[in-house]
């Protein structure tokens, strides 16, 4: 009985670890599911105080459906996003950044950095 219990626990752990590493949808599969033409936008993002803020914005946007690539640079206060316009709009990207507590702007010339 003891051996049977150990075997069941071992199988459950192996199954859980396998699902964690192999069961999730990979970025490549996510990118393949994007349809048609992709668009790229560059936004000014203000209110970031450190590289961790930039990493948080980047990671959150990468998880959104329709975003293929996201890159946020704290030093320049800019973010570059490649997305599928049939799944997400530019305004939804801006709104998500604002929801995180930062300000985002399409206006690359008249931008005041607030950090």
Automatic annotation (TrEMBL):
The chain crosses the membrane at residues 6-22. One of its GO terms (biological process) is copper ion homeostasis. This is Copper-transporting ATPase. Its EC number is 3.6.3.4. It is an enzyme of class 3 (hydrolase). Residues 39-105 form the HMA domain. Keywords: Hydrolase, Membrane, Metal-binding, Translocase, Transmembrane, Transmembrane helix. The keyword Translocase applies. GO terms for molecular function: copper ion binding; hydrolase activity; P-type divalent copper transporter activity. The keyword Coiled coil does not apply. GO terms for cellular component: membrane. SUPFAM superfamilies: HMA, heavy metal-associated domain.
């Amino acid at each position: 009985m003891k051996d049977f219990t150990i075997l069941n626990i071992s199988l459950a752990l192996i199954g859980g670890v396998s699902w964690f590493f192999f069961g999730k949808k990979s970025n490549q599969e996510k990118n393949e599911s994007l349809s048609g033409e992709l668009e790229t936008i560059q936004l000014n993002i203000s209110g970031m105080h450190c590289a961790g803020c930039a990493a948080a914005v980047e990671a959150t946007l990468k998880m959104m459906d329709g975003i293929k690539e996201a890159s946020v640079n704290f030093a320049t206060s800019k973010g570059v996003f490649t997305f599928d316009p049939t799944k997400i709009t530019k305004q939804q990207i801006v709104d998500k950044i604002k929801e995180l507590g930062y300000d985002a702007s399409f206006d690359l010339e008249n931008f005041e950095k607030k950090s």
